[in-house]
Amino acid sequence: MNIPSYIIPIIRRLEECGFEAYLVGGCVRDDAMGRLPNDYDITTNALPGDMLRVFADHRVIETGLKHGTLTVMSEGEPLEITTYRIDGEYTDNRHPDSVSFTDDITLDLSRRDFTVNAMAYSPTLGLMDPFGGMKHLKERRIVCVGSPTARFNEDGLRILRALRFASVLDFTIDPATSHAVRSECHLLRGISKERIFVELTKLLCGVGAKGILRDYPDILAICADGVTAKAFASCADKVAKLPKGDYVSRLALLCRISADEVSADSGKLAVNYMNSLKSSAADRKRCRTLTEAAATDYPADKFAVKRLMGRLDRDDVYAYAAIRLALTGDFTAHGEFLKLYESVAATDPCVKISSLRITGNDVMEITGVRGAEVGRLLGELLDEVIDEKLTNSRGELEAYLIKKRLGDGNK
Q1: How confident is the model at residue 411 (pLDDT cuts 50, 70, 90)?
Q2: Is residue 315 in some structural domain?
Q3: Residues 368/361, Cβ–Cβ less than 8 Å
Q4: What is the C-alpha separation between 154 and 91, in angstroms, rounded?
Q5: In this predicted model, what pLDDT tens digit does every residue of 208-217 receive, in sequence order?
Q6: pLDDT digit string (tens) for 100-112?
Q7: Radius of gyration over every alpha carbon of the chain, rounded to an integer in angstroms
Q8: Beta partners for residue 87, in sequence order
Q9: Average pLDDT of span 362-390
Q10: pLDDT on residue 331
Q11: pLDDT tens digits for 226-249?
């Protein structure tokens, strides 16, 4: 296993003090797949008090000491270390009521969700893989550790995590695990929307999302207020056309399809759905904008393109185009639109009121109007500039306003 240099001294220190120390979980899985791990976790038979003594000369953050976890800083990098533990009962189907410590790593690994996440590696002791995780990696299968029903009843979020891992890793789900996904899916109703949002957005961006959306739309719909199982299934063949890693464009596609199915206002549906997922305000606004834009055909001329540019930034124009392509499958119209957009964008046109070479204060000074009328006149000026009836020069804009004032004064 390729282990970053800052980790080796931490493992060595624990071993020199008579303890075991293993890298565990996702970092072992990712390294075995040739992927760069996002982070590294260590598990050890050292008790929390032992770890505090071992690393007394390090900066230590007591992350969750009562559960056996602390963070040690090594060469400026945080490294989470947890004592081998056994979880107690899960009466809330989400978190253990208690944890107890053990000196047996196999017992620690037995509490984990999937076999590919239940492997540990030590530079001196080698690989610990009591549940066949390496075999399942080679077979590209998601398999629960032990009883899938028991694992899911311990933590209902694991149901969605099974789908997410299968999507992100492009794995299949073992038949027994898949059966339990369906039989225990009711547990998802008790999971916080914030956690669902994290898992769902990763799932939608996975390289294997097509298969999961095709095979489990009913499960995903349990987590979705206002987005139907049919919409998830309809997205199966479409998500690959959207910008890589852009989860908001995928959510917008879902909302657009659902709005058509139930004859709902697409913008309101998007807002309600994103609110139900407890998304950020920025994601909610962007999803609504893309969902509403996706309801319209590609702009047919440069003037319509400029109006679209006033609503969408460059990245969102491409996201909009990709969603339209996913919805229509019309590569010709898609290509023609992008060619037209790029030619218009190259001229750096004025498409927003903020880009006008005149301000609201100027409008008030020249025309004497106040309040909402100022905004209306600025919008009128922008329309004239977009339609190329005026250039975005201060002189022309002022002349237009003076003419408006004189014209209104003669009425």
Answers
A1: very low
A2: no
A3: no
A4: 8
A5: 999 999 999 9
A6: 899 999 999 999 9
A7: 28
A8: 99
A9: 92
A10: 95
A11: 788 999 999 999 999 999 999 999
Q: Which two tokens stand for residue 385?
A: 């500039």
pLDDT tens for each residue of 154-203: 999 999 999 999 999 999 999 999 999 999 999 999 999 999 999 999 99
> What does the DSSP 8-state code read for residue 239?
G
- Number of other CB atoms surrounding residue 154 within 10 Å: 21
Q: What is the tally of helices (H) and strands (E) in the chain?
A: 21, 11
Task: Give every CB contact of residue 193 below 8 A, 6+ residues apart in sequence.
Answer: 276, 277, 278
Residues 6 or more apart in contact with residue 236 via CB below 8 angstroms: 209, 210, 211, 213, 214, 217
Say whether pLDDT at 409 is over 60. no
Tell me the residue ranges of DSSP E strands in 45-150: 60-64, 69-74, 77-83, 85-87, 99-101, 120-122, 126-128, 141-142
Separation CA 203–CA 12 (nearest Å) = 37
Q: What is the DSSP track for 171-199?
A: -EE-HHHHHHHHHTGGGGGGS-HHHHHHH
**Which two three-digit tokens encode residue 144?**
């629960």
> Whole-angstrom Cα distance, residue 202 to residue 160?
11
Q: 184 near 222, Cβ under 8 Å?
A: no
CA 49, CA 261: separation in Å to the nearest integer? Answer: 59
Task: State the average pLDDT over residues 275-288.
Answer: 94
Alpha-helical regions (H) of 240-371 = 247-262, 266-276, 281-294, 302-311, 314-328, 331-345, 360-367
Tokens for 370?
């106040």
Look up residue 360 and give its DSSP letter.
H
CATH number at residue 87: 3.30.460.10
Identify the domain containing residue 20 by its residue range.
Answer: 1-133
Listed residue (163, 171, 165, 212) closest to 188, CA to CA: 163
Q: Is residue 248 part of a domain?
A: no
User: Does residue 59 fall inside a structural domain?
Assistant: yes
> Which of 133, 166, 188 is a domain's end point?
133
pTM above 0.90, yes or no: no
State the total domains in the chain. 2
Per the DSSP assignment, residues forming a β-bridge with 61 are 71
Closest alpha carbon to 158 in 123, 195, 210, 131:
195
C-alpha–C-alpha distance, residues 42 and 125, integer Å: 14
Tell me how far the alpha carbon of residue 149 is from its chain's centroid: 27
- Give the residue from 108, 133, 158 where a domain finishes: 133
